[in-house]
């Protein structure tokens, strides 16, 4: 039976994550995200997705050292990044740089080691190229900083505060993995040909850059900036609803109830109440907007999606919109590499059929 876009066709069996949109549930390796995310670091959750278990103290330290060592870009990759014209979009620069890791010194490593190295270098690539675009010199990684704190350091050249790191890390832990989305499917299709991990991640990045998949939540930022302060919420939203405009950050094609990721992000933002005006505005606005949507569109059941609070967090740390999708990729590479590894463990090349509907000469 023809299913356009393979919608609802089961093509993969996986142990990595399950997404149940009808009940608003997301699990990593069988564990609900609300049980896993709040109490574990980015590095611990990454280890869990890769290996199916949480690391002990020694394993965690070993992973942290590998990630730290992996921050050093090979000289030829540095030269490629520096040679790209500044008008090349960041995701294209990342895709090009990642593809340059297809050399013997890298591909001869075990695939699990390759996954860690690619995870370590993607924020370095993003930061180096972004600063090039801004006419700024690159900043060397700081071995004393965590994966996410170091990313912010390399972007801005100043040490991020604890709240900034905590907010961004929560968002990125929640976006590491989300089932067989388009980019993850691209990675699995590529590596199913027994190509290499570099090619699989290059395919995933190329897919992620499409606005229908990895599009940035810039529309939510525009909404929050238009609202400006709590007293304007009712006026702004009522006007948009009367004009038939979409309220950005509400509704999701998979989740028919609350997005479980938005719930955790809301809790994180609420815990920072009074410490950041944008996070405060987002939490207050969400309540009023949901009430207005329920009144105007009672049959739609529109809830907050992950992009809503992601936008609030990005705005609070002054992350430029052109860095949204690359930053998303800094987290999602965990899922891409885990799926590529899993695909090779019981591989079968993807070869769906097509149905010809064109002209035939009689």
From TrEMBL:
Q: Please list the reactions this protein catalyses.
A: oxaloacetate + acetyl-CoA + H2O = citrate + CoA + H(+)
Record pathway: Carbohydrate metabolism; tricarboxylic acid cycle
Source domain of life is Bacteria
Note the Pfam families from the entry: Citrate_synt
Q: Which InterPro entries match?
A: Citrate_synth-like_lrg_a-sub, Citrate_synth-like_sm_a-sub, Citrate_synthase, Citrate_synthase_AS, Citrate_synthase_bac-typ, Citrate_synthase_sf
What keywords is this UniProt entry annotated with? Answer: Transferase
Q: Which residues form a coiled coil?
A: none
Matching SUPFAM superfamilies: Citrate synthase (SSF48256)
Question: Which family does the entry's similarity section mention?
Answer: Belongs to the citrate synthase family.
User: Can you say what this protein is called?
Assistant: Citrate synthase
